[in-house]
Design brief:
alpha/beta, two-stranded antiparallel ribbon, disordered N terminus
């Protein structure tokens, strides 16, 4: 596993998402330093520096991981599959407070309270939604109308 370091700290053995990436401390992979930005369709679509999208893993992808990935230049995703609607709202608010950079929410469409989750995403003004476990056709027009980018 790759290790990253910051002044006085070492990251990577157990929690690689805690790596601190700044222009002065960019990690080196395969003998090459990662450029400060990488322009492509993914970075343009989501407004991020690097074409890296965190997986919306249930039980793992809470606001801390999503905020850390977003702060490092990727797109952090909150995995909502294991959350109650109230807990999802809390994670969205905490993530927004922790980063001013883009982040999104992964929503498994087989979730029993999917209508409540979608309502929360719109009310909390989440701008990026990744869907899984089903077709987003029912919700896409409503999300687009609210200015949400939908990925499936």
């Amino acid at each position: 596993m790759a290790k990253f370091s910051a002044p006085g700290k070492e990251y990577g053995r157990y929690f690689p998402w805690q790596a601190v990436c700044t222009p002065d401390n960019l990690p080196i992979f395969a003998g090459r330093q990662i450029p400060e930005t990488m322009e492509n369709r993914i970075t343009s679509l989501f407004g991020i520096r690097y074409p890296i999208v965190a997986g919306g893993m249930i039980w793992c992808s809470g606001w801390r991981l999503a905020a850390a990935v977003s702060e490092a230049g990727g797109l952090g995703l909150i995995g909502s599959g294991s959350m109650t609607p109230e807990l999802l709202r809390e994670h969205i608010r905490k993530c927004r407070a922790a980063t001013g950079k883009p982040f999104g929410v992964n929503v498994p469409l087989m979730y029993p309270e999917i209508d409540r989750l979608m309502d929360i995403l719109i009310r909390e003004e989440v701008k990026i939604v990744f869907t899984s476990a089903g077709s987003p056709k029912k919700f896409t027009p409503m999300l687009h109308e609210a200015g949400v980018t939908v990925a499936q």
